[in-house]
């Protein structure tokens, strides 16, 4: 049911970054559920992680270890290893230690990532049994297979790739992501991996990732449920024959930033397009806010309203529900007589009431589209924020009522 | 699909408070959609109203007029007269003026209430045409008919009644409510009317209503969508042969407060039991909070999580989703190792991880029930809060996707 999401685009290989896929049979025998990624020696790695206080064991370990030298990322689907307490940490550390042993690196150089059911013990032996096969499979050309290997309730793999030239050298940024439910990332998404062959120091890389994630992964929501396992990683292998890039590198830094930003945005929006049960891709623009926070408050209130989401599903221009959501968003001293609301190009509410020019036919025409923009003009200031979300369909209920069966 | 909600209990008449029902054909010909209530001269009236900034025209008028002498409450269903701007205010005032004219009272003594679709013009002539019939129908014995007359997507009428004796005099408190969707009252519920024949000054009455609503109407949520039209009214006709009741009236005040509180709670919980598509009645208890606000933040995050609500619908003890919701509720410095979570009497998570004693069978047995208690022990302090909510079913999506068709 993915909205406007086709087959994977070409995912350019990134020199110094290899991916290997294997099957551990965690949830179903034969399913590709293990992805190992190898970063060339000297790579720098940045990460952003969920702010959920119940963050999963692998998130705790990955957060610690990303501070040191990173060589391998080990991802499993089918089990989130969250809500598993101390035994969960031991289990995550064991799988990393086994991979380190097989690969001949320090155990702390392996970072774990898990996604799947919360609260069940990680099947350590199954994962360990699949590691050699994943190592044997390592290749720079495996991005598409890895994008498929990290899927859970996703219906399509998600990836994006950009290249730019500098001094005759081609620089590549490629990324993949997964996630379709429990999506309201807070500092990161369910799982995202982006790699570049540029040479970038860890601090600069971390800032690049924070900036990129903040306007992409951190602005999407499907059901408002921030996951326990959100992680997004940015790896720079430094294999492109260019000097190290920093904020003072002028056009080179700007080009890299732009490429990272575009890849973040494309794979983040792909998660929304493939949202559980999604039939619409919805952009909520809030302009004219006094602060960024009040724009976000209004945007998320609209994006999370079950009444608006069901109206979107029904293609029903029930715009009163949008007004009601704006009104309850908690904006202090909100003057409704200054508010305009647009559905696509159609003004539905002007100065806080039904626009004189509005007809039900105009609203219905916009709502019939697969991609819909809801624009709210608060008339309070110059701040603006944009959020991307989906509708709420029968299929969403079905998927989540039957998730574990 | 109402959960544990049977036929209306006996609703004792309240001396000095009459109700009349009529049909204006607002949405469908012949449907009872007008309720007029008459308060005897000398009655005091208190009200709490939605905090939604887009509050409806009738709410604006009722809020102003409740400060003066109140004689009539005029309710229509089928049209919320919200998002209608200045013309909406004029329309509401016109219907009140017509009722005042027919009844021979001051126009400001009539308070309007509307519920239904947002953003459509109020059909003033239709309403005006039904007012005489409603006045002709006025009777103290009409509570049950009025409870049915204010329904919209409700499947059952909602009411409660209490009586107590003082110095050989019987005091009555009777109330009705409506609402099944767009329910997360903020200072009031969709619509609630409670009357007593006790004699109570306006200030004391307002405090009684605030206290009662705060622990009942303001603690229920179905979909998190605070309505534009929430109102709850408490009327004291003073017809019982007892002195005026105030906070210093000792046991008499305590008995009245208890009766008002119980009626508030019963009709508020009835709204949840009849929640759109509800198959479960869910109590979320949050104990051991450092502040009341953090208990509410945790409780509402759990109560609004689409993932928890769909798991409740599926009777799936997917308790990891509860942990994830607690973890993202925004409680500062939350120490997950102090948190216990119970499903009914079953400890599912202890010190932040799956309880050693927990089995899936225990969880499944609790989830199979129609009435479920989720208890979260934060281990941070002595504050506690309780919230009541429902599950999220296919029926909810169906009802709200098809509301206007």
Automatic annotation (TrEMBL), chains A, B:
Molecular function as annotated in GO: L-glutamate N-acetyltransferase activity; L-glutamate N-acetyltransferase activity, acting on acetyl-L-ornithine as donor
Keywords tagged on the record: Acyltransferase, Amino-acid biosynthesis, Arginine biosynthesis, Autocatalytic cleavage, Cytoplasm, Multifunctional enzyme, Transferase
The reaction(s) this protein catalyses: L-glutamate + acetyl-CoA = N-acetyl-L-glutamate + CoA + H(+); N(2)-acetyl-L-ornithine + L-glutamate = N-acetyl-L-glutamate + L-ornithine
Gene: argJ
Record: active site: 189 (nucleophile)
A single GO BP: ornithine biosynthetic process
Main location: cytoplasm
Protein name, per record: Arginine biosynthesis bifunctional protein ArgJ
Classification via Pfam families: ArgJ (PF01960)
Organism annotation: Pseudomonas agarici
Site residues by UniProt (Cleavage): 188-189
GO cellular component, one term: cytoplasm
Family, per entry: Belongs to the ArgJ family.
InterPro entries: Arg_biosynth_ArgJ (IPR002813), ArgJ-like_dom_sf (IPR016117), ArgJ_beta_C (IPR042195)
Residue numbers marked as site, Involved in the stabilization of negative charge on the oxyanion by the formation of the oxyanion hole: 115-116
Known EC number: 2.3.1.35, 2.3.1.1
Function text: Catalyzes two activities which are involved in the cyclic version of arginine biosynthesis: the synthesis of N-acetylglutamate from glutamate and acetyl-CoA as the acetyl donor, and of ornithine by transacetylation between N(2)-acetylornithine and glutamate.
Keyword Transmembrane: no
Location in or out of the cell: Cytoplasm
Entry binding sites for substrate: 152, 178, 189, 276, 400, 405
């Amino acid at each position: 049911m993915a909205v406007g999401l086709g087959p994977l685009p070409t995912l350019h290989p990134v020199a110094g970054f290899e991916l290997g896929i294997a099957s551990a049979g965690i949830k179903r025998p034969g399913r590709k559920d293990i992805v190992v990624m190898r970063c060339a020696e000297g790579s720098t790695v940045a990460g952003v992680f969920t702010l959920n206080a119940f963050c999963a064991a692998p998130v705790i370990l990955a957060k610690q270890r990303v501070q040191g030298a990173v060589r391998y990322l080990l991802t499993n689907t089918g089990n989130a290893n969250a809500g598993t307490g101390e035994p969960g940490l031991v289990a995550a550390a064991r799988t990393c230690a086994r991979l380190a042993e097989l690969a001949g690196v320090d155990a702390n150089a392996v970072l774990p990532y898990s996604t799947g059911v919360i609260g069940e013990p990680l099947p350590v032996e199954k994962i360990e049994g699949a590691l050699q096969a994943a190592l044997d499979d390592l290749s720079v050309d495996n991005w598409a297979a890895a994008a498929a290997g990290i899927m859970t309730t996703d219906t399509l793999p998600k990836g994006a790739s950009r290249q730019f030239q500098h001094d005759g050298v081609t620089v590549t940024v490629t990324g993949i992501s997964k996630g379709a439910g429990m999506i309201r990332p807070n500092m990161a998404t369910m799982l995202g991996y982006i790699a570049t062959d540029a040479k970038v120091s860890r601090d600069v890389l971390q800032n690049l990732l924070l900036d990129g994630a903040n306007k992409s992964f951190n602005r999407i929501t499907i059901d408002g449920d921030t996951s326990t396992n959100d992680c997004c990683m940015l790896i720079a292998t430094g294999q492109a024959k260019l000097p190290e890039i920093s904020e003072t590198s002028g056009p080179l830094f700007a080009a890299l930033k732009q490429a990272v930003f575009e890849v973040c945005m494309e794979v983040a929006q792909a998660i929304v397009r493939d949202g559980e049960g999604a039939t619409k891709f919805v952009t909520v623009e809030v302009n004219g806010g006094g602060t960024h926070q009040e724009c976000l408050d209004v945007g998320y209130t609209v994006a999370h309203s079950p009444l608006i989401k069901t109206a979107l599903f029904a293609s029903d221009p029930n715009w009163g529900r949008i007004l009601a959501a704006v009104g309850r968003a908690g904006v202090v001293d909100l003057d409704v007589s200054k508010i305009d609301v647009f559905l696509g190009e159609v003004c539905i509410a002007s100065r806080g009431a039904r626009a004189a020019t509005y007809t039900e036919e105009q609203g219905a025409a916009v709502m019939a589209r697969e991609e819909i923009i809801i624009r709210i003009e608060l008339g309070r200031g110059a701040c603006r924020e944009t959020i991307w979300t989906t509708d709420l369909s029968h299929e969403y209920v079905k998927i989540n009522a039957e998730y574990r069966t």
